[in-house]
Write a structure and sequence with these properties.
- By secondary structure, this protein is an alpha/beta fold.
- It has a domain at 7-194 and 368-393: Rossmann fold, CATH 3.40.50.
- It has 16 helices and eleven strands.
- The strands form three sheets. A seven-stranded mixed β-sheet has the order 3-2-1-4-5-7-6, sandwiched between helices.
- Strand 1 (15-19), helix 2 and strand 2 form a beta-alpha-beta unit.
Length: 394
């Protein structure tokens, strides 16, 4: 347990409000950056239970954003002040991992967020979404969102950020909208990490690799579970994950079918199903592997992919416990990732609680906390005005 914060010091902190908060990845990032998370909102009862368990002092609204007024949020905040209003509206209509549908009603929930931005007028606004939103429908949605910000009186900048550049052991790209109605400059965080072969050139830290993230966790074999740490931490990332945690949770593996085992046992690190000789593959893969010449493709898939221990993982989705659904085969064990391994690859510390049901969805849909911290670090620099806050508090 962390020591309780000094009430006066807490009042001095800039206030961050997290809408569409999910399990709390962005809130945790903002808290690590030094913000006071003043309020949060989500409609999903499952993520709300997890959020409340990890942020017990943050007022949480379990509600449909379409039914929320600015006063519903502001009255929960001392001083009725918001320094950063953030949101990650539902993205299923844009995601490349699902069926893309221009008319999906979830695509337009950002308008409800913009309604609150317009009425509250916080100095800074942060919005996150999947990378596909940038180019989907030739950028029509991106332009519509930027125009909505401008109509509310905000300057806005858009950028795709790769989580691996900011110490997350995962190559996960997301689009971020940063907007302000102040005269301050809009700045995105500069990369802090890079591939190992570019460290000397760029002068940055090496990417946090899969083994840096999960190499200290107990071996489980094909399946099983463990509640004890069997090895001491061997990397700074592992020490970050284990801080404040005495017992290992959610480290249980899903049993692999004989059919899947016949495939993954032959796959080397950093390889997927396309690395196997075509004649040895199950028939159902033959059709999907052929190109116009009749030859078998060797690209465009990470099915049954075994993670490379010396590199960050690919994007962690909600299906990380299924070896057949993507790049989720353990680097050295013939099984899929455990929920705790996936949470670490998302940069959640082991002390972060995920409550059932649908834990996989809570982990896979979250914003990596260390990516959230990198973005909110830049906003914290803009908002560091302790003397002004002291005067306002008195």
């Amino acid at each position: 347990m962390n020591a309780p914060e000094d009430p006066l010091e807490l009042m001095q902190k800039p206030v961050f409000v997290d809408l569409f908060c999910g399990a709390g990845g962005l809130s945790l990032g903002a808290k690590l950056a030094g913000f006071r998370v003043g309020a949060a909102l989500d409609i999903d009862p499952n993520v709300c239970a997890t959020y409340a368990a990890n942020f017990p002092d943050t007022p949480l609204l379990r509600a449909d954003i379409r039914e929320i007024s600015p006063s519903d949020i502001l009255r929960r905040l001392p001083g009725r002040r918001i320094d950063v209003l953030a949101a990650g509206p539902c993205c299923q209509g844009f995601s490349t991992h699902g069926k893309r549908d221009r008319n999906d009603p979830r695509n337009f929930l950002f308008r409800e967020f913009m309604r609150l931005v317009r009425d509250i007028q916080p100095p800074w606004v942060l919005m996150e979404n999947v990378k596909g939103l940038l180019t989907y429908d030739r950028g029509w949605y991106r332009n519509m969102i930027c125009d909505a910000f401008r109509r509310c009186g905000y300057r806005v900048e858009v950028k795709i950020l790769n989580a691996a550049d900011y110490g997350v052991p995962q190559r996960r790209e997301r689009i971020f909208f940063l907007a302000t109605n102040t005269n301050d400059t809009i700045e995105f965080p500069s990369p802090r990490h890079c591939p190992a072969d570019q460290v000397q050139i760029l002068g940055l830290e090496r990417y946090v690799a899969v083994t840096d993230a999960i190499g200290d966790l107990p071996s489980l074999g094909i399946s099983g579970s463990s509640k004890k740490y069997s090895n001491p931490p061997t990397s700074s990332f592992q020490r970050y994950c284990r801080k404040g945690s005495k017992e290992l949770t959610l480290h249980h593996a899903k049993e692999v079918s004989d059919y899947a085992m016949s495939i993954i046992r032959r796959i080397e690190c950093g390889e997927g199903i396309r690395s196997l000789p075509p004649e040895t593959l199950p028939k159902r893969f033959h059709r999907m592997r052929k190109i116009s010449s009749g030859a078998f493709r060797r690209d465009c898939t990470t099915l049954y992919y075994r993670l490379c221990p010396e590199k960050p993982s690919y994007t962690i989705t909600c299906f990380f416990t299924n070896v057949s659904s993507g790049p989720f085969v353990h680097p050295s064990q013939n099984r899929a990732l455990t929920p705790r391994e996936a949470a670490r690859l998302q940069s959640f510390p082991d002390s972060f609680v995920f409550l059932p049901p649908k834990i996989n969805h809570q982990i896979g849909n979250a914003i990596p906390p260390l990516l959230g911290k990198a973005v909110t670090d830049t906003l914290m620099e803009k908002l560091k005005v302790p003397k002004m806050r002291m005067a306002a508090a008195s």
